[in-house]
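Example 3.2
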Amino acid sequence: MIAHILSTGDEVLLGDIVDTNSAFLCSALKEMGIDVQKIVAVGDDVNDIASVIGDSSLTADICLVTGGLGPTRDDLTAFAGGKAADDRLELSQDALASMRSYFKKRGFVLTKDNEKQAMLPSSSNMLINYNGTAPGFYMKINRCLFFFMPGVPSEMKIMFEKEVKKILVNEFSLTDDILIERLTVFGLTESKVGSLLKGFETKFSELRLGFRATFPVIEVKIILIDSREDKDISDIARAKQWVIQQLENKVISDRGLTIAQEVGRLLTKLKKTLAIAESCTGGLISNMVTDVAGSSNYFLFSGITYSNDAKINILNVRKETIVEYGAVHDQTALEMAEGVRRKAGADFAISTTGVAGPGGGTEEKPVGMVCIGLAGSELSMAKTYRFSFDDRVKNKKIFATTGLELLRRHLVLLDKTP
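Structure, written as tokens:
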């Protein structure tokens, strides 16, 4: 089976946005046993889009198209789909009803501009948009079944999961009996993970491995398609344990949770609370923690103490510590963690202070250096880490993840204590 992905929009070609949709769809199709042969990006030109659709209609069995379903003049995908199919556009009553329901639920007024989004090729069938205004649609053109979805990732993903996937299963007699075990890995590069897991396909011939890197973590997927027997389930369980053993202590979740979700799970299980003091990470750790539903049960307080005065006046870091060691030092990080823990009355506290870059580094304290403090009722420690990235955003992400990982490791030990 041949699958193509078409991403539309000038913003993709100009580099204004990163095309995460194609990556998601490639991964989702692979999990269904479908390999993508081609990914094409095309700008907001109706003729160009129609031409690419026409090419795929003759060579592919499936084509997933994202973008260009909005209400503005540069949203031309429905027109292009109709042109490629030599089909007229008409007002879809199903699409219009879906849009009215969406607008009414949110107290918005459906305008004439929005009604444009309900103009679909006459031979198409609507796909419900659960997270936005633009309905999707699917249609057969020559040999290929096309699915047209919004470009907004949150809208596209839920449409694929709830609408497109079940149609693919029915139309192509695919199995929807797919078992996937997900492991979250931190502290290894993607190439290193691949190297450590060499031999997997030989050892577990009925299973497939998948990888998804989202800096600074890697998701490892163990995929079993069409599992019907107990033997299949035991095979994937054995494979999971083998992968964990090969990756040693770098698996931070054997359930595919994010680092923040795993820390939250452990804090909840142990009935412990958390406070955070951030300098170089600028609130990123707190954001990661509060992205997890239920974090209010264990997260008490956060302070972004960027300046030295804030560290001294809010966290009670000793002025002498700043003068003697500077802001970026283990001792400063330690006093930050202890100070925020006392202020919040939390069981545990994390702190970060470092040099995110790209400027501001010295030979003694280079860009990529971070000091992380961890404090608890019977715990008081700080560690210095040095990373080789010059990219400010990357450094902040890896600093934040490392801080949560330091806490996670301690919570794992605490969880194992009788």
